[in-house]
Amino acid sequence: MKNAIKYLLIFLVPVVTVTACKKDTEEKPTEGTEKPGTKPPPTTPPPATNPYNNIVETKAPVQKAITYNVNTNIGGFQQALPYLYDSTTKRYPLLVFIHGIGELGDGSTQLYNAANVGVASLIRNKLFPANFVVNSKNYSFIVISPQIKKWDYKTVAKDINDMINYAISKYRIDTTKMYVSGLSMGGGYTWDYAGVYASRLAAIAPICGASGPNDAKAKVMATANLPVWAFHNNDDGTVTPANSTGYVNKINSYNPAIKAKLTLWPTGGHDAWTKALNPKYKENNLSVYEWMLQYSRTKK
What we know:
The chain is of the alpha/beta class. 25% of the residues lie in helices and 24% in strands. The protein has helices at 2-8, 118-124, 156-170, 185-197, 215-223, 242-253, 273-277, 288-293; strands at residues 20-23, 62-71, 74-81, 92-98, 132-134, 137-139, 142-148, 173-183, 203-207, 229-233, 261-265, 295-298. The chain has a six-stranded mixed beta sheet with strand order 2-3-7-4-8-9. Strands 1-12 form a two-stranded antiparallel ribbon. Helix 4 links the parallel strand 8 and strand 9. The protein is globular and about 45 Å long. It starts with a helix and ends with a strand.
């Protein structure tokens, strides 16, 4: 049996370059530093009958604090891998989640802050599902939550692009299913990144995003037919809901094939993320995670 498993693990899946989007039819962080990634980039696809490519996760993802200079503005990140990651050769959807301004830090001694909010907090508290079923298919996310050192508007797109490129180089990422989300500052990062690199992503979910609506960025997202689900509270006194309504309206003014959608709750103040990210919160019977997984970025 051990020899059989070793034989199966030599088969690996290639990275696919993607350019267009479609809807599919089918605890507290560990202290210290860890080197991310445990397997080299795959080069050969596994056989269709490989059982280790079809494992359904039943245990919570494993999250670790990783201190590593991704670039000069990202000194570390929270890494969450499916529990059975090392037992498979499959590729996984990537979710990059970006924190708010209150969690800025050095990526080392302050890295625990990146696990205090958003998806990383759900994972730490064992509230993030191990497996999602969408269109009769099973999915488990690799979740990367970078810690930003300084909110520099000039480097936002580069910072997130560097994080995604690093993740692709270190983990078995399904590059047809890469998603970005974030809250407040991180929601702004989500808008600003997608406004430049929309064609890399399968979907985005900005939450009370701190980025003013921009015609050029909206056009980039609309032209790429990027699925967008934005969230905001109408009584947000910290980041105006006009950011979310403005972006959604501008994107939809270009009449994209996939209309941007907005959930605007009447109350809740600045915290729209607790409800938006709750796996139990659903619209049209889909959580935000299930909604994301409907979509893939494929060749035109």
